[in-house]
Amino acid sequence: MPYRHLEEYNIEVTREVTDHYERILREIGEDPAREGLLKTPERAAKAMLFLTQGYRQDAVEILKGAMFRESYSEMVLIKDIEVYSLCEHHMLPFYGKAHVAYIPDGHIVGLSKIPRVVDVFARRLQVQERLTDDILECINTTLKPRGVAVVIEAAHMCMMMRGVQKQNSVTTTSGFRGQFEKSETRNEFLKLISSELH
Ligand SMILES: Nc1nc2c(ncn2[C@@H]2O[C@H](COP(=O)(O)OP(=O)(O)OP(=O)(O)O)[C@@H](O)[C@H]2O)c(=O)[nH]1
Ligand SMILES: [Zn+2]
């Protein structure tokens, strides 16, 4: 992605994507000139650029911006982080929850930065497996904790609205590094994310 000035990039790309959506409307049998649809191509373009803004954001920089030296060395768990992403096969939403934990090794990170990192990777075309790994690897290589764990539970609209049309299936993906590779620590994490206590 060329790093042109963001505003200039947004105006140019919004115009291009808007033109494409107008063509799509015509191809599916709609009349882009009817009143209700006049602004739809531009709205859809802005929505798509919002949902894919992760391509223009840097998760490593976000984490590095709020790392603090601390000796705390127990598990830090942020659970039930809402996730909205787009599957790369159909560009339809998949959505659910992410649970992220790490065990610090000299540094902690500002709590809000974890959901921000989740969003940076979710706001791209993804598969749930790669989204899980992207979050895991980013935290592992940037914060260098003793361990990191990521679990994502999600429903895929491409399996609900079309295709196999299953309304209640949930897909769970997970990744573990460092101390979470040991079953004791992993089990403590899994117990915490399944508990109803907040
Ligand atoms: N592993 C994985 N698969 C996904 C994800 N999101 C969507 N898919 C699947 O991607 C696959 C694409 O398969 P294809 O056979 O090429 O596409 P399709 O003909 O539209 O498949 P159906 O959805 O079965 O109708 C489907 O099985 C989807 O369920 C994801 O996050 N991870
Ligand atoms: Zn899909």
TrEMBL record:
One Pfam family in the UniProt entry: GTP_cyclohydroI
Entry keyword set: GTP-binding, Hydrolase, Metal-binding, Nucleotide-binding, One-carbon metabolism, Zinc
GO:BP terms for this protein? one-carbon metabolic process; tetrahydrobiopterin biosynthetic process; tetrahydrofolate biosynthetic process
Q: Which EC class does it fall in?
A: hydrolase
Could you say which EC number(s) this protein's record lists?
Answer: 3.5.4.16
Instruction: Provide the family line.
Output: Belongs to the GTP cyclohydrolase I family.
Q: How does it assemble?
A: Homopolymer.
Protein name (Swiss-Prot/TrEMBL)? GTP cyclohydrolase 1
Origin species, per record, is Robiginitalea biformata (strain ATCC BAA-864 / DSM 15991 / KCTC 12146 / HTCC2501)
